[in-house]
Target: 1-deoxy-D-xylulose-5-phosphate synthase
Amino acid sequence: MPRILDNINKANDIKSIKPQDYKRLAKEIRSFLISNVSKTGGHLASNLGVVELTMALHLFMDFPKDKLIWDVGHQSYTHKLLTGRKDQFATLRQLDGISGFPKREESECDAFDTGHSSTAISAALGMVKARDLKGLSNKVVAVIGDGALTGGMAFEALNNAGRLKSNMIIILNDNNMSISENVGGMANYLAKLRTNTRYTGFKESMENALTRKIPGGREIVHCLKRSKDAVKYFMLPNMLFEDMGLTYIGPIDGHNINSLLSALKNANRANKAVVIHVITKKGKGYIPAEKNPSRFHGIDPFYIDNGEPVAKNQTASYTKVFSSALVKMGKKNNKLVAITAAMPYGTGLSSFKKHFPDRFFDVGIAEEHAVTFAAGMAAEGFRPVVAIYSTFLQRSYDQIIHDVCINNLPVIFAIDRAGITGRDGKTHQGIFDLSYLSHIPNLVVMAPKNKWELEEMLEFALSYEGPVAIRYPKGEAYTGLMENREPIRLGKSEIIDKAGDIAILAVGSMVKTAVMVKNRLNDYNIKVTLVNTRFVSPMDCEILEELSENHNVFITMEENVRIGGYGQQVSDFLCRNNKQDIRHINISLPDKFIEHGGVSELFERLDFDAESITRKILDELQF
Ligand SMILES: Cc1ncc(C[n+]2csc(CCOP(=O)(O)OP(=O)(O)O)c2C)c(N)n1
Ligand SMILES: CC(=O)[C@@H](O)[C@H](O)COP(=O)(O)O
Ligand SMILES: [Mg+2]
Model:
């Protein structure tokens, strides 16, 4: 039988599908997604949950005139399918392929680039205001998950939207899950709304009574639903959203296209912001994902039959090393507490949670709050470890300065996914943290060269009476240089090899590459001194002074953009100390947003692999 999906080749084609075929189309979309994501990897569970919701939105809206903003954007695959990107799906998240997130440069139907959580309502509200100022009448819809609704920005936007006097629709896609279990007061509140059968029951029995018992009642209900006041008919009084000035519709079955369409049409009549509370099942239609939505939130290629991963990682990741080290440290120090912003698995804190449930805190997708919450605990004598990905910690810049560093509090930042993270692309690369952290007074910034040094740095951080940030990359922890175990001292680097008149100063993850570069240079008879910088702040000026006496080339290497990075600090040092006769080769990432692709593919494309770096050095030295 030909697929209905094959009749959908561009935006709005779904409108020509017969309503009796919607169910079949939803099924076809699910099997398309499962089949493709099993090969490319991606955010499967969230996407399976919003198939009908996306279909309903596409039946309701006109693209690209109307604006649809996906919060986080990890659930936008069906939207991509329905807007002419079906044939590119095999390239999802691959180098030069389509992105796993909405991208304005990819399609005019993608209204806003997302990737970080809780931005959609703000962006949508901005678009509503712009629409009204331009005198247009297009629809603006934001889709935000129950997890993303725990983020501060979402509340700031709702607060602002409460005063709106024109139409804006906010779909609250409630699947009762963040990546892990959704936590906190908002999650509890939504749970109450979900189970509020009293309200739904009341509405249904009113409707039944009117239609059955009153002559002409059916017409009354019909008119009521179509009238300007229809939104009131659906609203539940005395609720958070209502009290804030928004209209609430729901809860609605997010897998029933007809219910979704009538809710959307009703919401569209209001001259204010309307929240449609939609209940969906994360992972719907694929049993392994329904059973384990957390594992299928973001998944590497897997076998469809059983959901097992195609490749099994044997070597320990930095996350795993951090996870075990923290448990060990937690056993020795009962003041140690661990904090995550909704990523207990990704950051490796789930193990700490298991051992010390009372000393573990998941604060929701709230990185700003996580940092100031840690500051509060530190001020009262605890030793908080805040584990956050480099890209998400960008959110907390002011809290790090104002709440942690001005107070000079002993908070440890465990910064995972620092460097190129790969397939999530521009929004998720952790390439700015050295720049946004190393100029902050009081903050010590470190990066380990290998798995043992990560543990040693954590121990050092715990013994230090001030804030410390330790950054480490995604993936396998380096197990080379096991013998190099010089004790860690504040602001002191470690000399791995001393030879010749060229010095390589490598930061953290780049030590591994530097070892390979050094060996390649040795093949050309170029002798190299290799330094593991350990600290980016405070920078080890003594070693720079010492090396400058018998080295005439400094090569700095860091997995961070150039501006504000370690290399620029070294340049500045050479300049300030009148050492411009020393040649400085700065190996860092380009000052641009880096697209999606495999980590090693991106390294090659950016000339950041050992081979390309060696070639660059040889060229610069005119060898
Ligand atoms: C600022 C920020 N912190 C953390 C994340 C990681 N993250 C991506 S999706 C997600 C959970 C989102 O839950 P929800 O909004 O309910 O969507 P669902 O996955 O359930 O569809 C998290 C924590 C992020 N994208 N942005
Ligand atoms: C959408 C999102 O922000 C997360 O799901 C992110 O993709 C997780 O990255 P890791 O897979 O590296 O944990
Ligand atoms: Mg959710």
